[in-house]
Amino acid sequence: LVHWVEETTNRARPVKVASSNTPLRDHLNQVWKATGVKPQQLRELPEKPEGIGYLWDLYQEVRGENQLSFTEISSWLQLTGMALTGKEVRAIRLIDRVVWRVLKNG
């Protein structure tokens, strides 16, 4: 999980590609679409761990400008009417910590 989040976050960073701030992963996907050849950097991405896709999607929905607190997650759950297990909440917090570490340290 941690390795996949690190790699996904690194490739989602905006990079200068032809005077653009397009995330690298988006640029590589466009290259793949245009040429039909999957770029090496995409081939090297680790596979998403089985069963975490929904956690990544939930994280994308709840994340904000700062690291997530339990209070923010609790408020978000209350507003959306969702119920998560403690394990799922901890996983979302782990994803958040990894994303922020990668963004801060490169």
What does this structure look like?
- With about 110 residues, this protein is mainly alpha-helical.
- About 65% of the residues lie in helices and about 0% in strands.
- The protein contains 6 helices and no strands.
- The longest helix is centred in the C-terminal third of the chain and has 20 residues, at about 85-105.
- It is elongated and about 45 Å long.
How many β-strand stretches?
Answer: 0
Helix-strand topology string: HHHHHH
Count every helix, treating DSSP H or I runs of 4 or more residues as helices: 6
Unreliable parts: none
Shape: elongated
The overall pLDDT average reads 85
For the largest beta-sheet, the strand count, sense and barrel status come to: none
Q: What is the percentage of strand-forming residues?
A: under 5%
Rounded radius of gyration (Å): 16 Å
User: Structural class from helices and strands?
Assistant: mainly alpha
Which percent bin holds the helix content?
A: 55-70%
Topology at a glance:
Elements: H1 2-12, H2 24-35, H3 40-43, H4 53-62, H5 70-80, H6 86-105
Helix pairs in contact: 1-6, 4-6
